[in-house]
Structures are given as C-alpha cells and as structure tokens.
Amino acid sequence: MEETISLKELFQTLKKRIALIVSITLIAMIISGVVSYFLITPEYKSSTQILVNQAKDSESIYSQNEVQTNIQLINTYSVIIKSAAILNNVRNDLKLDMSVAELNNKISVESAQNSQIMTVSVADPDPALALEIANKTAEVFEKQIKKLMKVDNVNILPLADDQENQSPVSPNPPLNIVIAAVVGLIVGIGLAFLLEYLDNTVKTEQDIEKLLELPVLGAITTIDESKEAKLRGRQGTNRGDLVDSK
C-alpha cells in the first residue's frame, strides 16, 4: 500500500512541476543549439595513410614473422610521428604559426588491429590546411624514419585530394542538442523533487496527520461561491414559479 502511495505522490510531484521541468529542458536545448551553431568553431578532419611494409623482391615470399614485426613497429612509429623530431620539420616546411604542442594536439594516429596501415588524421578549422598538414607529416615521417630507424619499410598511400570539401566533424549540433535535452530533463526532475522536499507547507489532511501524528476529526470543504449563487438563483426561481401558480 505504501509503494502505491509513494508512486502516486511521485507522479503528482512531476505533474505539479511539469512547467519547471519543460522550461529547464527547453532552455538547455536552446543554449546547446546556440553554442553549437554560433559559438564553437567547426573543425574539419583530413587523413592520409601509411603502409608499413618491408620492400622485397618479386621472388621473395612474405613470412608471418615479418608481418607481425611490421605490425609491432606501428606502435613505435605512432609515437615517432608525433615527436618533435617530425613535427618541427612539418612546422618549418609549412611555416605554421603554432607551437609543436599545438600541432601535436591536432594530429592523431590510428591503426586497425593486425593491420600494417597507419592512418594519420589532422583536425583544423581550415580543411585545406588540415589536408596539407596530414600529407606533410606523412612525407616528413617517410624521410626521417630511414635515418632514425635505418629501415625502408614505409610507403605513403595516395588518397583523394578533395578532402577539404567534406563536412565538419565537430561540433555535432543535433547530438549536442539531444544530450542537452537529456541533461536538462534530469536536472529539471531533480530540481522538482528538491523543491517538493523543501516545501514544508501544509496543504492536505494527510499532511496534518504526518506532521502532528494525530487523526483528522473533520474538514471544512471549499465552498464554490459561483455554484452557491447559481443554486440560490434556482431556488428563488422555483419559489417565484410557485407563487405565480397560486
């Protein structure tokens, strides 16, 4: 019985504070939309791919050990690509007005499991610059790895040159608005229950019983003056009819 009452009170609280919950949710969605569309600078992502594979003669046969060695080297190469030894050359060649740390934050290196291919991605507000940095990073890495590791097992895979025409990868306004709606809804519901918890005013007979721990002997109902006036008017009309009939 107590669970039924608690559930009923819960829905009553939500119903009473529905305007507050909806308002907070809408405000959160509006703020998220304004920030996503007008305040956050869009960023574009361009990528280039690097194949880690030792050059071999046409008569040579690839062994499983050589493939595994190349795959394991990718972890080392991923660190080298983002090192100052590579990024300093990229920054100088492109005459970039940014520090090595800032350039490092723009670059990410990924590789699929058991794959000999690394993907070098660059995010920047300028799609053309992002593509230029990605290509230059791969180019510098291909040259420098021969000196650093004394190996020749890196090849750049050509990609499309029209990556600067793609859509921005961030921000994602629809996703941000949905997240804001969920957060606003949670905050609104939490605030509704908080206000209800802090509200210690007496409104019903049940509140008196809970507060004083005494039974309610009687209650005065609210009198609707409009209904009472109508009732008196009808009674007066009925009496007038009776007088006329006499």
Name of the CATH superfamily of the largest domain: EIF_2_alpha
The number of helical elements comes to: 9
- Give the integer mean of the pLDDT values: 81
Give me the secondary-structure category.
alpha+beta
Radius of gyration, rounded?
A: 36 Å
Strand content: 5-15%
Distance between the termini: 60 Å
> Residue share in helices?
55-70%
String of helices and strands: HHEHHHEEHEHHH
Query: How many strand units?
Result: 4
Total domains: 2
Task: Give a structural overview.
- By secondary structure, this protein is an alpha+beta fold.
- The chain has two domains: 16-38 and 172-229, no CATH class; 43-156, EIF_2_alpha (Alpha-Beta Plaits), CATH 3.30.70.
- 61% of the residues lie in helices and 11% in strands.
- The protein has nine helices and four strands, in the order ααβαααββαβααα.
- Strands 2-3-1-4 form a four-stranded antiparallel sheet.
- Strand 2 and strand 3 (117-124) form a beta hairpin.
- The chain is elongated.
- The chain starts with a helix and ends with a helix.
Ordered list of secondary-structure elements with their pairings:
Elements: H1 2-16, H2 18-39, E1 44-52, H3 64-81, H4 84-94, H5 100-106, E2 107-111, E3 117-124, H6 127-149, E4 154-157, H7 173-198, H8 205-212, H9 225-245
Antiparallel strand pairs: 1-3, 1-4, 2-3
